[in-house]
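A common beginner's mistake is to predict each chain separately and then try to dock the pieces by hand. The better habit, illustrated here, is to supply every component at once so that their relative placement is modeled jointly.
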Amino acid sequence: MSTPARRRLMRDFKRLQEDPPTGVSGAPTDNNIMIWNAVIFGPHDTPFEDGTFKLTIEFTEEYPNKPPTVRFVSHMFHPNVYADGGICLDILQNRWSPTYDVSAILTSIQSLLSDPNPNSPANSMAAQLYKENRREYEKRVKACVEQSFID
Amino acid sequence: MADKGDNNVERMDNENIKPDKMFTLKKWNAVAMWSWDVECDTCAICRVQVMDACLRCQAESKRDFYGKQDCVVVWGECNHSFHYCCMSLWVKQNNRCPLCQQEWSIQRMGK
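With all components supplied together, the output reads:
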């Protein structure tokens, strides 16, 4: 049955295909439009460059009034990504607006890779290295870039 | 030979002088452009034109007494417009304009 949330997601998918933002891609899973798979390519001139990071996005029938649950499937080493792949990003929590769509969510996460916020850490080790030992941070990030080609 | 050549030149000159029309206007099609008199013509919440019924009303094919779809537009004090249906669901959880984050208060409603 087609619900408002599903119809909105059809529109999101259409927009993502007609006007694809650079460095991100996403599509609903074969038999459930409420669950999407997405890929974010590591932004240039960051330690994440060349990485292909996979995510899942899960929507509820309350979308777009409630944000979806977005999670990295690929292993990440980032100050704002939890060990289970969960993402600490204000627009996916208290700063959510129903005007966001899949395209906006993915580009926001992409820019979070370039600009971590070490002051609200989800991975305290990554946050500490980002602030105090950038070389070691980049080394750990490069390792998960390599890992992203496999998983 | 020389005469013949001169004549040719003269004839060509005469042809050029003849006041020939460069073109004739045969058909004129006027084209007009129009758009709804609103700042944003698409509801940023459901992404349907504000003058059409919102996604929810389309799905439920909700109709008023006259058989027309009853899905009105609401303008905030910030001048942003949305479907009333979309906005009334959103303000229940956050009374701010989804586009500019200003406190939401209704300026007017209608079509």
